[in-house]
């Protein structure tokens, strides 16, 4: 249990010591839970955002600090101690296997197919990005090697690969290790560590990595390293930009050196923030879009890139980890609102962004070539257009039944679909496709096989 104000009143019933602290620092929480039983299921942080007059910020902050201190000093029970020992043993035994008989020399991209590294192992760089430095490409992302849908492991650190051609990738190992000592730590293997992004900060010379912690935490963990290849160490945990809970995000450095963070926040919208000089926090909010929407139309899967003088934002809808349609938007400034120009996926009969979600649009250095980098999280559960339409109507009907209807059979079909927590995501594949432009609008067209050199 993560100690702090992300706990709910129901969580607190499991720990008398934590419950006593809430009664001491924030007695209004018990009053609210008794008056409105539904409030017992929401985090203290969320309750404070809904009723700030009932939960003064000074009291909430003091409670958060007290709960975190309590969590650090509370001894582990037998089950937790056994779990930590198990993960430590896994890390000690962990080694990179080589399978020369499986090794493939690639000369093209094969979207959606299994992609092996130079050791013959499936690449584990999910929801990640590519970074170019000193003539080489570096691909990093979530390491899902132990995430089989049966155990509670979500991400085992952040992994990096190196290539000179974008096709063949050498495993460099973990650049951010999992935290195996602190069950409350944001990098513990069972925490929902998602979508790492790295920027190089010219002011400090440091490489700064932000990762999103999903689920109840809905916050950032920020890490730093002296080299791109790490090792990265934690600078800040539980970071909420200007108090906002966070979802999917991306960061970008503008031509003038200013850096920006764009993130879907709660309440649902996509907010843009200016980063501080050291890239380890935000200084102000600069823009907000996609406001006041409900699922599946509110946005996540935030991805940023520039082309010429235009700035672009690509997002996906919200249907859990079930793939859905994307939307592209354009602006002439990172500090101005974006205008939607529609789904960039051309002739996508699946209505699901070719059964994938984009995490980066990478420009090949020195070339006018853009690659949309995406994950196909559940390759064994592909959608067709009919199924995608049904899922969208089912989700929308829960918020706007007057305009969106779904049959009981469609409701049951969505409920029966496996969610990503029960899927073997170490088998997830990648969908890399060329992104081109037509009249200022980004376009992504499906190719079974393609070479980036053909678009240069």
Folded structure, characterized:
The protein has 456 residues and is an alpha+beta fold. The protein has helices at 9-12, 16-25, 28-35, 44-50, 57-73, 78-93, 385-397, 408-416, and strands at 126-133, 136-142, 158-163, 170-176, 193-200, 207-213, 219-225, 233-239, 245-253, 259-266, 269-275, 282-289, 300-307, 310-316, 326-331, 339-342, 357-363, 370-376, 429-438, 441-444. It starts with 8 loop residues before the first helix and ends in a 12-residue tail after the last strand.
Key structural traits:
456 residues; four-stranded antiparallel β-sheet; 8 helices; alpha+beta
Summed up, what is this model?
With 456 residues, this protein is of the alpha+beta class.
Write the layout of secondary structure elements.
Blueprint: H1 9-12, H2 16-25, H3 28-35, H4 44-50, H5 57-73, H6 78-93, E1 126-133, E2 136-142, E3 158-163, E4 170-176, E5 193-200, E6 207-213, E7 219-225, E8 233-239, E9 245-253, E10 259-266, E11 269-275, E12 282-289, E13 300-307, E14 310-316, E15 326-331, E16 339-342, E17 357-363, E18 370-376, H7 385-397, H8 408-416, E19 429-438, E20 441-444
Antiparallel strand pairs: 1-2, 2-3, 3-4, 5-6, 6-7, 7-8, 9-10, 10-11, 11-12, 13-14, 14-15, 15-16, 17-18, 18-19, 19-20
Helix pairs in contact: 2-5
């Amino acid at each position: 249990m993560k100690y702090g104000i992300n706990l709910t009143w129901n969580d607190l019933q499991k720990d008398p010591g934590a419950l006593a602290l809430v009664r001491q620092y924030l007695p209004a929480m018990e009053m609210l839970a008794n008056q409105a039983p539904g409030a017992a299921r929401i985090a203290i942080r969320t309750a404070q955002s809904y009723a700030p007059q009932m939960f003064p910020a000074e009291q909430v902050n003091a409670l958060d600090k007290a709960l975190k201190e309590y969590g650090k000093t509370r001894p582990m029970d037998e089950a937790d101690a056994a779990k930590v020992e198990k993960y430590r043993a896994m890390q000690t035994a962990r080694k990179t296997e080589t399978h020369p008989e499986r090794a493939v020399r690639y000369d093209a991209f094969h979207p959606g197919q299994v992609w092996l590294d130079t050791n013959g192992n499936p690449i584990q760089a999910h929801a990640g990005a590519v970074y170019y430095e000193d003539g080489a490409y570096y691909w990093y992302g979530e390491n899902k090697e132990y995430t089989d849908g049966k155990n509670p492991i979500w991400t085992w650190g952040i992994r990096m690969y190196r290539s000179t051609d974008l096709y063949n990738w050498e495993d460099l190992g973990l650049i951010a290790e999992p935290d195996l000592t602190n069950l409350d730590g944001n990098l513990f293997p069972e925490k929902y560590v998602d979508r790492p992004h790295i920027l190089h900060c010219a002011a400090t010379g440091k490489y700064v990595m932000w990762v999103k912690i999903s689920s109840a935490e809905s916050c950032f963990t920020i890490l730093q390293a002296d080299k791109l290849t790490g090792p990265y160490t934690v600078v800040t945990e539980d970071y909420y930009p200007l108090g906002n809970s966070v979802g999917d995000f991306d960061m970008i450095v503008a031509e003038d050196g200013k850096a920006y963070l764009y993130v879907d926040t709660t309440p649902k919208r996509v907010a843009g923030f200016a980063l501080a000089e050291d890239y380890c926090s935000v200084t102000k909010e600069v823009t907000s879009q996609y406001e006041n929407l409900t699922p599946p139309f509110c946005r996540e899967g935030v991805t940023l890139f520039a082309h010429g003088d235009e700035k672009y934002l690509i997002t996906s809808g919200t249907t859990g980890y079930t793939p859905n349609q994307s939307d592209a938007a354009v602006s002439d400034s990172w500090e101005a609102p974006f205008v939607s120009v529609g789904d960039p996926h051309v002739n996508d009969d699946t209505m699901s962004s070719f059964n994938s979600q984009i995490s980066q649009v990478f420009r090949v250095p020195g070339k006018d070539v853009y690659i949309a980098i995406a994950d196909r999280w559940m390759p064994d559960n592909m959608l067709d257009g009919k199924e995608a339409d049904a899922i969208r109507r089912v989700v929308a009907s829960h918020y706007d039944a007057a305009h969106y209807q779904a049959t009981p059979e469609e409701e049951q079909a969505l409920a029966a679909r496996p969610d990503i927590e029960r899927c073997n995501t170490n088998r997830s594949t990648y969908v890399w496709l060329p992104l081109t432009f037509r009249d200022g609008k980004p376009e992504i067209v499906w190719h079974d096989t393609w070479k980036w050199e053909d678009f240069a």
